[in-house]
Amino acid sequence: xxxxxxxxxxxxxxxxxxxxxxxxxxxxxxxVVILMSIELILNAVNINLxxxxxxxxxxxxxxxxxxxMAVAVAEAAVGLGILIALFRNxxxxxxDEMDLLKW
Amino acid sequence: MMPDYAFFFFFSGLTLGGAVLxxxxxxxxxxxxxxxxxxxxxxxxxxxxxxxxxFAAQIILYVGxxxxxxxxxxxxxxxxxxxxxxxxxxxxxLVLVLGATLAAEFIILLERGKWKVGGxxxxxxxxxxxxxxxxxxxxxxGNAEQVADTLFTRYLAPxxxxxxxxxxxxxxxxxxxxxxxxxxETGEREAER
Lengths: 103, 193
Known about the structure:
The complex is a heterodimer.
Chain A: H1 7-27, H2 31-55, H3 60-90
Helix pairs in contact in A: 1-2, 2-3
Chain B: H1 2-24, H2 28-48, H3 52-77, H4 80-84, H5 92-112, H6 119-122, H7 125-128, H8 143-151, H9 156-177, H10 181-192
């Protein structure tokens, strides 16, 4: 491990993953894929936390990444529950067809 | 030197390629499969970063848990009609331009600031070699031991609060997922209108 990959390579990968996840949230109409894109964004954050944990030689970042994972699990469970309830009530899983509050 | 870079580019390719393919698939089941590929790539990056515990947690939680949840929900709400309609919003050219701008900005900033992020400490990994966070166990401690040492001392209170969050999420998911007669009738009336 004498010559490890420099940290900013990881940061670039993480930034690109964040951008792809953001594009997924903004582009797609299917809510299932939007929720998956949110998982991608949280994963980009986790990569960043692991990189900075390695940079500073402390485990704090990895602990925070674990917390982010717990929040992601909770978010996925609740989000998919909302999705099922929405599908039962309105019969669609397209984001732009849920325009009840749109004036 | 070479194996590290080879593994890094392999796992980054897995991560980013899986993410792009997840984004562009028409069928949500295929999206979920490419999401698994992408998450495995992220797990490999964790392994390269010396975060073995995160690697295991990533595989178990994400690949084993969340994507399975996604697949079950896709089976529950999968609509053939959704696959036949337009998949992207109408404003997609604007969003793509904004995304490309954001990506270029990130890359330029990271390239310009790579020697200023934290001086030699930030990139001292190459000089010092292995990942050695501080702690009472010293340099011999494994990664899981270090994470546990930090989690159960310094971050004990957030750890306990996380259990409340998970309980709330379980209750909320069950409550929203269950079939209730009165709500269904409302929904049917809503659909008839």
